[in-house]
Specification:
CATH class of the largest domain: Mainly Beta
Helix content: 10-25%
Structural class: alpha+beta
Order of helices and strands: EEHEEEEHEHHHEEEEEEHEEEEE
Number of helices: 6
Shape: elongated
Number of domains: 2
Distance between the termini: 39 Å
InterPro entries: Peptidase_S1_PA
Strand order of the largest sheet: 7-18-17-14-15-16
Strand content: 25-35%
Largest sheet: 6 strands, mixed
Number of strands: 18
Radius of gyration: 23 Å
């Protein structure tokens, strides 16, 4: 919970959820009143910088990845440590109710998942759209394909390239930037206003495909608990771009690659390009062979305004892409800015060959992928569309092991 928020080890808590914290009992009292999935501010100091307080936004764990907290007290007579529950059985934190119930979402997804998964499968197999450059950009941890030669004015290229470079991050660590607004200011209103201003400024330089597909793109932030790292997962933090394939008043579905959502036992947060809101998601489907997953979300978490602007992408499984076809690669930067590049399909039936890793882990097999005429780098993911913004393929990340060089 604290590591996800970027809180360093040995930090000293000063205030949590608006309450002063000076001893362990006060922290336990505050935690007992919080529900799963709640997002509360935390103020802390580090022993290396004791005179400067820092604030972050902490998301309370939504799943029981670990056992309930306990307090151990030493018995000096026996030399043993006696355990007792830290939280009372009736506390909200121990309740099974969460903001986005996995079982409810799964039940509502059954019918839709069957249809949508079939369509995605058709795109993956018939249109060969699990995408990569197929040569040198298959790397580990979080390797995407990016960067394409300029196809518009030089000024547009410079702007877009700057956005792509914003995607850079080290080791998948999230740096929390949670500023506390001044009294009397509505932070949501300020955020939405600034968000819309940025969108208007970027709209002038956006392609038609970019403008059409942007409301359907979602940025993923995935955290895998340490207790689940044994399931062939090579990192605890993943980021990537997904595309909404179904959106209604009761449920939404997002398709994403399995190098972003590797296993179902993970905490998934979704940030929408169309609306400045972050809500949790639940993994409802992981394809056993091909490199895609489906994540469900509750549209009510977006509010009426957010749910009205977010929409599902229009899929175009036919006709299949052919050599020489022009496509637009559209994705998101870490600042949720849509970026697009125009490219040419050089090989729509490239064989994907990912070698086995040193230890058991998932690898995509039995797939044909699409090659483009340029190398897009390693910090970009998204979708391939036509000029009208209809999705023809997923530009995905593949998980492979990078060979170590010994000198």
């Amino acid at each position: 919970m604290l590591s996800r928020a970027g809180v360093p080890r040995h930090a000293i808590m000063k205030k949590f959820a608006g309450k002063e914290i000076s001893q362990l009992e006060e922290l336990i009292l505050v935690l007992s009143k919080l529900s799963r999935g709640a997002r509360v501010p935390l103020e802390y100091i580090s022993y290396t910088d004791r005179h400067r307080s820092k604030s972050v936004l902490v998301t309370v764990d939504r799943h029981e990845w670990y056992a309930p907290p306990q307090i151990y007290t030493r018995d000096d007579n026996t030399g043993l440590w006696t355990a007792r529950p830290a939280l009372s059985p009736g506390s909200l934190l121990l309740s099974l109710d969460v903001n986005c119930d996995r079982k409810d979402l799964t039940l509502r997804t059954v019918a839709s998942t069957t249809d949508e998964a079939g369509l995605i499968e058709h795109i993956h197999q018939n249109n060969d759209q699990e995408l990569t450059d197929g040569v040198a950009s298959l790397e580990t941890n979080y390797d995407h394909v990016a960067e394409e030669p300029p196809s518009r004015e030089e000024s547009d290229v410079t702007t877009k390239r700057r956005r792509v470079e914003e995607d850079s991050f080290a080791d998948g660590i999230v740096v929390a930037d949670c500023c506390i607004p001044e009294p009397g200011e509505d932070p949501r209103t300020m955020e939405i206003t600034g968000f819309r201003d940025d969108r208007r400024a970027a709209a002038a330089n956006a392609s038609t495909a970019e403008r059409v597909i942007e409301p359907t793109l979602v940025m993923f932030e995935v955290h895998v608990p340490a207790s689940c790292m044994l399931d062939g997962v090579h990192s605890q933090h993943f980021f990537g771009t997904g595309v909404i394939i179904y959106h209604s008043q009761s449920m939404g579905l997002v398709a994403v690659d399995k190098n972003t959502v590797a296993i179902s036992a993970s905490d998934v947060m979704l940030s929408f390009a169309a609306y400045p809101m972050e809500i949790p998601g639940e993994v409802v489907f992981l394809h056993p062979v091909h490199n895609f997953a489906l994540v469900a979300y509750d549209p009510s978490g977006l509010g009426a305004a957010g749910a009205s602007v977010v929409r599902a992408a229009k899929l175009l499984p036919e006709p299949a892409l052919r050599r020489g076809d022009s496509v637009y690669l559209v994705g998101l930067s870490r600042s949720l800015q849509a970026t697009s590049r125009k490219s040419i399909v050089t090989n729509p039936y490239a064989a994907l060959n990912i070698g086995s890793a040193d230890y058991p882990r998932y690898r995509a097999t039995n797939m044909e992928v699409i090659e483009l005429d340029t190398d897009f780098g390693s910090t970009f993911s998204g979708v391939l569309t036509d000029e009208q913004g209809r999705v023809q393929a997923i530009w995905a990340s593949f998980s492979t092991q990078v060979s170590e060089i010994w000198w």
